[in-house]
Amino acid sequence: MPDAALSQALQEAYASAPSEQIILHTLELRHPAFVDGLGQTTAIRVVRDTADLDARLESSATLNGGEMVRFIAMGFELDLPPVDTLPVPEITVTLDNVSREIVRHLDAAAESQAVIVVTYRPYLSTDLQGPQMDPPIHLVLTEVEADIFRITGRARMLDVGNKAFPGISYTAKTFPGLTR
To answer: What does DSSP say about strands 68-73 and 76-78: parallel, antiparallel, or unpaired?
Structure first.
């Protein structure tokens, strides 16, 4: 079954594997504790390639939506979630040769109760004006382990089965008419 989120160009690239078009896999890790030297919220952005990548994010991106951003070249492993009947698909994400900056951000995140969100975006080398999957895949990173060579974590799709429905809590405080 085709994935409706994939662009037509990416579907063709997967199907025909042309040598002049390279699929560039990117990851973005976000957490409220990830801040830059100026105290501004930032994200860790990496591309599985040998050179850094400047590409435009989708307009609905949480940080820097619609802007050109830099993805740092880094080796990583990621198997996309299977189409399966499991309640919450899980995958393993491994980043190789991580920098001190990434370890510093992850240490800051470990002291917080907030989750690390991982966003996967594929780009085509011939079109960097936006990801070739809209919406991109968002995962929650858990069980992070780090050593001097790599960082490994389990990532899972947002657990929709355990979310409250409806998403609004009808309380007397937010809906005063309920007390009458």
So the answer is: unpaired
**pLDDT tens string 135-156:** 888 888 888 888 778 888 888 8
Q: How far is residue 160 CA from its own chain's centroid?
A: 17
Q: Which position has the higher pLDDT, 122 or 97?
A: 122
CA 97 and chain centroid, separation: 19
Q: Is 2 helix (H, G, I), strand (E, B) or coil?
A: coil
The whole-number average pLDDT for the span 106-135 is 88
Helices (H), 59-167: 100-110
Among the listed residues 113, 127, 105, the one whose alpha carbon sits nearest the alpha carbon of residue 45: 105
Please report which helix (H) or strand (E) contains residue 15, including its range: helix 8-16
Residue 93: closest CA among 161, 140, 136, 132: 140
- According to DSSP, residue 133 is labeled B
